[in-house]
Amino acid sequence: MEKELSRTKILILAAGKGKRMESDIPKVLTILKGRPMIRHVLESIHGITSSKPVAIVGHKAELVKQELGDAVVYAYQKEQLGTGHAVASAKEHADDAEHVLILAGDQPFISSQTIKNLIKTHTDRKAKVTFTTTIVENFEGWKKGFMNFGRILRDGNTILGIKEYKDANTNEKSIKEVNITTYIFNGPWLWENLSKLKNENAQNEYYLTDLIHLATEQNEIIATITIDNKEAIGINTKEELEIVEQVS
Predict the structure, then answer these.
(1) Which of 20, 35, 125, 154 is catalytic?
(2) Is 125 a catalytic residue?
(3) Domain-by-domain residue ranges, the chain?
(4) Whether domain 2-247 has CATH 3.90.550.10
C-alpha cells in the first residue's frame, strides 16, 4: 500500500458554497460534531498517509485557508462550473501523478479503510477509474438525503455510467445504487479526457461523473466498491446536518 500511496495524489473538493445550508461560509466549514466537515475528511487521509492533499477552494477561499493553514496544498477554482472543472483547476498539482484520488469535503464519514480499499481495488484491477457507491433500500428518514445523489447505471455487472439526479428520468430515479463522490483515476487518462467533458445538462456544469461514460465508450476497465450507508452520508442542508448529528 505504501507504494500505491506514493504514486497517488489526493484532491479534496472544497470550493462549494453553503447556499442550501442557509449559510454564506464555504460548505466544508460547516460544523459537525465540533469540527468543520473537512477536518473529518483530513483525519481519514492522515490515517493512511503523511503527504499533503490538495484542497480545491473557491467560494470564500480565505476562510478555508484560515482553518486549514499549511495542512494542505491549495488549488483555486475561480468559477463554480462543476466538479469536472474543479478537478481541472488542480491539474498543476497532480499532472505527474500515476493515480489521482478525489474526495468530497462534505462527505465527512469516509474512512481511512475505504480510501485504502479504493486504491487497492483500483490498482489490482488496473482500472482507469474506480469509484464508491452505496445501495439504499429506501429514501426515507435519515436516508432521504441520498435522493439527490447520482444513480449508477449498469447492464448486469457492467457499469454504463452515472446519471445525476437532476438529469435522471423517472426510471433512473428509482435506482437504489447511488454514487458517492469518491473516485480514483489513472492520472494520464484523467488529464487526457477531462478536456472532453461538456456542460450539456440541467446545471450547465462539467460533471466529473461524465468521465465514467467516456471510460465506457472507450471500453476501459471501470471498478467500484460498495460502502455502508452511514459512511456514505453527504451533508447539503441544515436538516441533513441535524439528522446526521443524531444518527452518527
Answers:
(1) 20
(2) no
(3) 2-247
(4) yes
